[in-house]
Amino acid sequence: MLEDRDYMRQPEFEEHRWWPNLRLRWSWTLALLVSYVVVLLAELITARFFHDYSYIFGYLALSREGLEHGFAWQLVTYQFMHAGWLHLLLNCWAIYTFGSEVEALLGGRRFLALMFSSGIVGGVFQVLTAILWPALFGGQVVGASACAFGLVAAFAMMFPERELTMLIFFVIPVRMRAKTLLILSAVIAVMGIVFSESILGGNVANAAHLGGMAMGWFYVKKILKHPALIGADEETRFIPPKLVKKKMVPPEEKSPDEFLESEVDPILDKISAHGIQSLTTRERAVLEAARKKMAQR
Predict the structure, then answer these.
(1) Is residue 37 domain-shared with residue 20, that is, in the same domain?
(2) Distance between CA atoms of residues 128 and 279, nearest Å
(3) Cα R_g (the chain), whole angstroms
């Protein structure tokens, strides 16, 4: 019976009764957020032990001088470090907001590849600007913001028309589509590089942000090359082509066997491949309808 399947009994299948959009299930997104907190605590403890940050930052923060000395690991380690709790909070908020849904759609392996490649490419962009303009961009860089902007780009590629509510200064709500957010973020990053001494460029790794966005766009558009991942409607995402070509019969008019074959089996395949957290609202409703049909047999 459909209701006897393990994933139909998982608590995460049902939304929280008080906070329907709260998804605190264990995932790579959550694991990364926890690791950022742990690393910042380690930074603070180490800085207290050595009385400053220069020791740990010299080896783990990203810098042109570090790469010149062969510290290639800095392109990865800088992604886990942050300059303080506010810096950490902003990056964690962005990664959680966009990462949960991107990971659900791509799966853990592709999600991690997107995150780390965005961070590495963002770091390369930042170091290149430091080579071209050492007086303006020669400082050390820390933070997961390049990864966060890579997620923003990937999210905007997959859900370009999704409306988002952004809080400017955490107070002023502004609604915009995901593709608009990506364009606006890219413009701000470019302006921050050009006008590096203004408020847009002061102490902000805008080149890393731009590189992260470029990699997020490239990863979805050129590496994955899956049309269902690029601007597809959520209700038809991952539906096999053979189902799209068939004449669609309303679910209530189908027999239980026809309903299972045409509507439920593709969803079960998707759960097997991507996990139950990847289901859309419509697909969850179809599973619930299937459970009721099976109970009536």
Answers:
(1) yes
(2) 41
(3) 22
Task: Enter the tokens of residue 103.
Answer: 């990971």
User: pTM score, two decimals?
Assistant: 0.69
Domain membership flag for residue 165 = yes
Q: How far apart are CA 238 and CA 249, in angstroms?
A: 19
Q: What is the pLDDT of residues 68-106, one digit of tens each?
A: 999 999 999 999 999 999 999 999 999 999 998 899 888
- Same-domain pairing of 193 and 282: no
Q: Do residues 278 and 270 make contact, with C-beta atoms less than 8 angstroms apart? A: yes
Distance CA 153, CA 155 (A): 5
- Evaluate whether 123 touches 99 at the Cβ level (below 8 Å): no
For residues 265-285, average pLDDT: 72
Cβ proximity of 256 and 291 under 8 Å? no
Q: Does 2 reside within a domain?
A: no
| Domain termination residue (choose one: 197, 213, 229) | 229
Ramachandran area for residue 225 (φ above 0: left; ψ -120 to 50: alpha; else beta): left
- CATH number of the domain that residue 44 is part of: 1.20.1540.10
CB 140 within 8 A of CB 207: no
Domain of 286 in residue numbering reads as 234-296
The DSSP line for the chain is: -GGGSGGGS-GGGSPPSS-TT------HHHHHHHHHHHHHHHHHHHHHHHSSSHHHHHHHSB-HHHHHTT-TTHHHHGGG--SSHHHHHHHHHHHHHHHHHHHHHH-HHHHHHHHHHHHHHHHHHHHHHHHH-HHHH-S-B--SHHHHHHHHHHHHHHSTT-EEEEEETTTEEEEEEHHHHHHHHHHHHHHHHHTTTSTTTTT--HHHHHHHHHHHHHIIIIII--GGGSS--TTTTT--HHHHHSPP--GGGS-HHHHIIIIIHHHHHHHHHH-GGG--HHHHHHHHHHHHHHHH-
Q: Two tokens at 287?
A: 């599973």
> How many structural domains compose the chain?
2
